[in-house]
């Protein structure tokens, strides 16, 4: 397979052999390119930054849940390295074009028309975009009409066109809807700075995968499916209720951040729970089981309809429901679903925007619990309204504009849906991951709350630094293979899981891959990321939670945050 480099200024391109990138994929590939080729002190929206789309090592195969795509660049939100991960059809389609990665380089002259870039097996075509200014669902419909229903897309909405720091890149799902997001870190702004509205992959391409040991791969693939289909979380909990199954679980654990991280329990949790979501789907139509990409056997996504019985959104995740729900004291699930749809339409990270709306409430612009007000404010992003420009640049930016000092960010990125005082394993991850506050970088919720893969008390300091470090390494490896993070639930409990992953790689390449070598991919990935951030100006002082977490105890369990910055360094490779 090859790497496609596209110069967005000259509209030239070249196909390259993998060379030194051979053996890498997904996050390991994006972080290696960023670390080696992007000046650490560059402006994220400058010509010096690069935007990398990479399929995982296992993307050329039909291994279950191997269709995640990694997008990498220097983040305009954090100022550090960023890998943003998404579902959709993009990752599985790249290898069918004999590609492992696409790299956007340079930057067009000011005033140049935004481009659509069509990529097929033997050519790259640039076209002045006909969907500039359009929201994502309408733009996607027009793109499919122009390029064919089987086309696979990555596109930005109005927020990305305006290069706002909370802008996403939306990927088309198996139904062709732009519902999957590379959400965190503002990489949609980087795509906008490159003058690219959409990348369209030829869905008719079908390059065949050559296996080094196909029989071994088939054997491993069968075992891999069994690992995922026999674990209660990946075979029952997530397919039945989606990630929203966590609302009641985390609330009962006293770890559901409520009213901008003031409390750990929300009285309205039941109204926005996975059980309520599933009941609404049962009444209105839609789907409780839905895969974000072809080949998913977990099926944790879902299709959610409004009260009118018509499609409203899909990929309606726990983090979104928490952020626009408990975080803002909103218990209207349908309004939250509309917020999710609005973010997908404009191209905005739901975690960042939910925390941004909390800053608007802290600043007196909105009342706590005002769901209709939130919908109105979100609608301003991507428009000519100056407030929309403020909101679209995220939590910290909005807090400064409104004079708020209770700002839940690490490295300028907003915290997700677990209070770090009650779930210290993920709290350590928030503080120390190179990505900024990111639950997916080392998901300590498994051991702290769900008791999957072990039992580490999330209220106590002991054991959680080591837990986070090990999870960060394993997660970087999983991201680099292109696997869904949720395979972790199964592989943490099933001794067959991790060796099976290594066996899948061995079957694909024909070269023996040990478990230690596979985890080494994760270690080296993290080293690339930490090296870049150090050169970008980050210090140990950036590896800490905001002061209010260190000063306030969290009800109902009255737990605090007691780690020093020095102690937290042990979580890094």
TrEMBL record:
EC number(s) on file: 1.2.7.5
Alphabetized Gene3D superfamilies for the sequence: Aldehyde Ferredoxin Oxidoreductase Protein, subunit A, domain 2, Aldehyde Ferredoxin Oxidoreductase Protein, subunit A, domain 3, Aldehyde ferredoxin oxidoreductase, N-terminal domain
Keyword field: 4Fe-4S, Iron, Iron-sulfur, Metal-binding, Oxidoreductase
One Gene Ontology term of the molecular function aspect: electron transfer activity
Cofactors, names only: [4Fe-4S] cluster; tungstopterin
InterPro entries assigned: Ald_Fedxn_OxRdtase_dom2, Ald_Fedxn_OxRdtase_dom3, Ald_Fedxn_OxRdtase_N, Ald_Fedxn_OxRdtase_N_sf, OxRdtase_Ald_Fedxn_C, Tungsten_al_ferr_oxy-like_C, W-dependent_AOR
Aldehyde ferredoxin oxidoreductase N-terminal domain ranges (all copies): 1-205
Enzyme class: oxidoreductase
Family assignment from sequence similarity: Belongs to the AOR/FOR family.
The protein's name in its UniProt record: Aldehyde ferredoxin oxidoreductase
């Amino acid at each position: 397979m090859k790497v496609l480099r596209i110069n967005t200024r000259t509209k030239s391109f070249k196909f390259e052999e993998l060379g030194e990138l051979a053996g890498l994929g997904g996050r390991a590939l994006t972080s290696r390119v960023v670390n080696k080729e992007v000046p650490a002190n560059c402006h994220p929206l400058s010509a010096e930054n690069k935007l990398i789309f990479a399929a995982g090592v296992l993307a050329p195969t039909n291994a279950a849940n191997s269709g995640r795509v990694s997008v990498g660049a220097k983040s305009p939100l954090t100022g550090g390295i960023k890998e943003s991960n998404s579902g959709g059809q993009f990752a599985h389609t790249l290898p069918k074009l004999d590609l492992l990665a696409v790299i956007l380089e340079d930057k067009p002259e000011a005033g140049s028309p935004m481009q659509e870039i069509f990529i097929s097996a033997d050519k790259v075509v640039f076209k002045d975009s006909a969907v500039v200014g359009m929201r994502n669902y309408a733009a996607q419909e027009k793109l499919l009409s122009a390029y064919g229903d089987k086309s696979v897309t990555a596109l930005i909405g109005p927020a990305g066109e305006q290069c706002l720091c909370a802008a996403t890149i939306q990927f088309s799902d198996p139904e062709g809807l732009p519902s999957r997001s590379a959400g965190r870190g503002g990489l949609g702004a980087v795509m906008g700075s490159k003058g690219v509205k959409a990348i369209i992959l030829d869905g008719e391409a079908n390059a065949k995968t050559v296996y080094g040991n196909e029989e071994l791969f088939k054997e491993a693939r069968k075992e891999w499916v069994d690992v995922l289909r026999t674990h209660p979380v990946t075979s029952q909990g997530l397919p039945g209720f989606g990630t929203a199954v966590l609302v009641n679980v985390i609330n009962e654990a006293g770890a559901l951040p409520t009213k901008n991280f003031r409390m750990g329990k929300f009285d309205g949790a039941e109204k926005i729970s996975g059980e309520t979501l599933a009941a609404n789907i049962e009444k209105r139509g839609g789907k409780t089981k839905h895969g974000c990409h072809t080949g998913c056997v977990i099926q944790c996504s879902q299709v959610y309809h409004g009260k009118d019985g018509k499609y409203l959104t899909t990929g309606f995740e726990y983090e979104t429901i928490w952020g626009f729900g408990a975080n803002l004291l909103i218990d209207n699930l349908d309004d939250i679903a509309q917020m999710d749809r609005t973010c997908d339409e404009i191209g905005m990270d739901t975690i960042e925007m939910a925390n941004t709306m909390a800053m608007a409430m802290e600043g007196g612009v909105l009342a706590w619990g005002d769901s209709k007000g939130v919908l109105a404010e979100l609608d301003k992003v991507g428009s000519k309204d100056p407030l929309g420009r403020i909101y679209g640049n995220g939590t910290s930016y909005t807090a400064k504009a409104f004079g708020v000092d209770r700002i839940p960010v690490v490295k300028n990125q907003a915290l997700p849906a677990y209070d770090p005082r009650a779930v210290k394993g993920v709290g350590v991850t928030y503080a120390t991951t190179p990505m900024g506050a990111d639950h997916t970088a080392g998901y300590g919720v498994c051991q702290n709350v769900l008791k999957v893969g072990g039992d580490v008390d999330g209220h106590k300091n002991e054991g959680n630094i080591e837990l986070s470090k090990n999870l960060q390494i394993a997660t970087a490896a999983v991201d680099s293979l292109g696997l869904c993070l949720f395979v972790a639930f199964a592989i943490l409990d099933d001794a067959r899981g991790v060796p099976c992953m290594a066996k899948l790689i061995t079957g694909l390449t024909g070269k023996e891959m040990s478990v230690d070598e596979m985890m080494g991919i994760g270690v080296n990935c993290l080293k690339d990321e930490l090296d870049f951030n150090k050169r970008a100006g980050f210090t140990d002082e950036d590896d800490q939670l905001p002061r209010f977490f260190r000063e306030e105890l969290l009800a109902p369990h009255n737990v605090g945050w007691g780690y020093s910055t020095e102690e937290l360094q042990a979580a890094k490779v």
